[in-house]
Amino acid sequence: MFVLVEMVDTVRIPPWQFERKLNDSIAEELNKKLANKVVYSVGLCICLFDITKLEDAYVFPGDGASHTKVHFRYVVFHPFLDEILIGKIRGCSPEGVHGFFDDILIPPESLQQPAKFDEAEQVWVWEYETEEGAHDLYMDTGEEIRFRVVDESFVDTSPSGPSSAEATSSSEELPKKEAPYTLVGSISEPGLGLLSWWTSS
Question: Alpha helices of 96-194 — where are they, by DSSP H?
């Protein structure tokens, strides 16, 4: 689920931070830049793990800051496909069950079947069949859920200029914001789903 990724970046340290230790200033700047951000094809950055190498720092004309090329390792959230994760349900919608952040989705076809969406309660329900008949097992917000990662997608959300078609359209229409990193999960096999379903009473 969490991996260490080796990265290289040039970090700018302003002059008023020169009195601090260089490693501390660089760590702070790297976390400001990367923490809680998605790096395309890498994953969701969590925090700096360590700095492995500092190259020479340079001061450029007209800029009193130092610029240092830094080799470092960063903790990144990037589950591999078929990995089993446990998290809390953040909410449900007709599109499916949302995981511990909005961009993890378990679509209806990947739920335990038969399943239905309860419009009144705004939850998905597994209609579990027993000898006594069907029992409704609700997937409530805040419940712990075990799921398998079956797909992932990265979207390049870098800013770009408007296309000619967009320029002629109404300025009141806001473009739909896409998530830079999404995971698709599945609970359609025994042992997956709410933890409470599989624990003995």
Answer: 164-168
CA distance 31 to 29: 5
Q: How far apart are CA 10 and CA 33, in angstroms?
A: 11
Task: Tell me the pLDDT of the chain averaged across its residues.
Answer: 85
Report the range of poorest mean pLDDT among 142-146, 149-153, 155-159, 170-174. 170-174
Which of the four pLDDT bands, split at 50, 70 and 90, describes residue 174? low
Architecture of domain 83-156+175-197: Beta Barrel (2.40)
Query: Domain 2-77 is in which class?
Result: alpha beta
Q: Which tokens sit at 182?
A: 């999404």
**What is the maximal distance between C-alpha atoms in the chain?**
81
pLDDT for 164 equals: 54
Q: Domain extents for the chain? A: 2-77, 83-156+175-197
The answer to whether 124 and 139 have CB atoms below 8 angstroms apart is: yes
